[in-house]
Design a protein that fits this description.
Layout (H helix, E strand, L loop, with lengths): L4 E2 L2 H23 L4 E7 L3 H16 L3 E7 L5 H13 L5 E4 L9 H7 L11 H8 L10 H14 L7 E5 L6 H10 L3 E5 L6 H5 L4 E4 L17 E4 L3 E7 L2 E7 L4 H4 L5 E2 L6 H20 L5
Parallel strand pairs: 1-11, 2-3, 2-4, 5-6, 5-7, 7-8, 8-11
Antiparallel strand pairs: 9-10
Helix pairs in contact: 1-10, 2-10, 6-7, 6-10
The structure holds guanine.
């Protein structure tokens, strides 16, 4: 029985964060610029609070100017748009992120599109989506989760995925669609599957690369997987797990990790895979934005 390699996203993210920290110090020393990241959180979603805290901590550890705006659950659309407008005009801020999901009364599309595309480190603005789709990524921001997945795929297979079949499970705007664009840009043959796909296991069985981003715990099983396939698990599902004989709430992915390990070539764990890479890619986008604003990127 083969045992798949466990892709250590945490270690890779830490290495990347170290080089971002070094480059940040250099940018400040040589050009007097400190990357600035503003994170906006609206309401009290517990998962969002954890994510935002982690983003703030990572920004501080990279040496960024890091600010957080916490708005009440009942903040008005105008209040949010006013804050974004102020951040758009603030020269000390190079990246703006509004944590999703938003309270239901707010218009998510209007809010994400109000962020200046040059500060849109989430890559959600139509300008950035368009540039990514057209393969014009030199001055565009790519959404952090797919960008992190891509780096891990490159580590396993190299940057040219010619002749490889990639199957993306899930068609969200945050992960599935941009992931498909990035894989396509790297010359993979890409299939995007979703809830209306017929015989998903049969489609996945042809994949050399599987990216699972649907939010269904342990959905991808060993008998779906081609021997040697690379599996990237984007799922973060809170489920009851037996830990030390007790049922505790824990995180699990969309992939049945233990099951697929007998067939796959390499798999990302949850936690410790895609999650840490996503946060580090946000730091990378923010540093890049600061450099672009000073005319320093090629
Ligand atoms: N909520 C879950 N993932 C993300 C993300 O990548 N960006 C933002 N802004 N909110 C999220």
């Amino acid at each position: 029985m083969t045992v798949a390699k466990r892709i250590d996203g945490k270690a890779k993210a830490a290495d990347l964060a170290e080089s971002i920290t070094r480059e940040t110090a250099l940018l400040q020393k040589e050009h007097g610029i400190k990357p600035g990241l503003a994170v906006v959180i609206i309401g009290e979603d517990p998962a969002s609070q954890v994510y935002v805290r982690n983003k703030k901590r990572a920004a501080e550890s990279c040496g960024f100017h890091s600010i957080q705006h916490t708005l009440a659950d009942d903040a008005s659309q105008n209040e949010v748009l006013q804050l974004i407008s102020e951040l758009n005009d603030d020269d000390a801020i190079h990246g703006i992120l509004v944590q999703l999901p938003l309270p239901r009364h707010l218009d998510e599309l209007a809010i994400t599109q109000a962020i200046e595309p040059t500060k849109d480190v989430d890559g959600f603005h139509f300008i950035n989506i368009g540039k990514l789709t057209a393969g014009q990524t030199s001055d565009a921001f790519t959404p952090c989760t797919p960008a992190g997945c891509m780096l891990m795929i490159e580590d396993e297979l190299g940057g040219d995925l010619s002749g490889k079949n990639a199957v993306v499970i899930g068609r969200s705007n945050i992960v599935g669609k941009p992931m498909a664009s990035l894989l396509l840009q790297a010359n993979a043959t890409v299939t995007v599957t979703h809830s209306r796909t017929k015989d998903l296991p049969a489609v996945v069985a042809a994949a050399d690369i599987i990216v699972a981003a649907v939010g269904r715990p342990n959905m991808v099983k060993a008998d779906w997987v081609k021997p040697g396939a690379i599996i990237i698990d984007v799922g973060i599902n809170r489920v009851g797990k037996v830990i030390d004989g007790e049922i505790k709430m824990g995180l699990t992915g969309d992939v049945d990790f233990d099951d697929v390990c007998s067939v796959a070539g390499a798999v990302t764990p949850v936690p410790g895979g895609v999650g840490p890479m996503t946060i580090t890619m946000l730091m990378s986008n923010t540093l890049r934005s600061a450099r672009l604003s000073a005319g320093l990127e090629d």
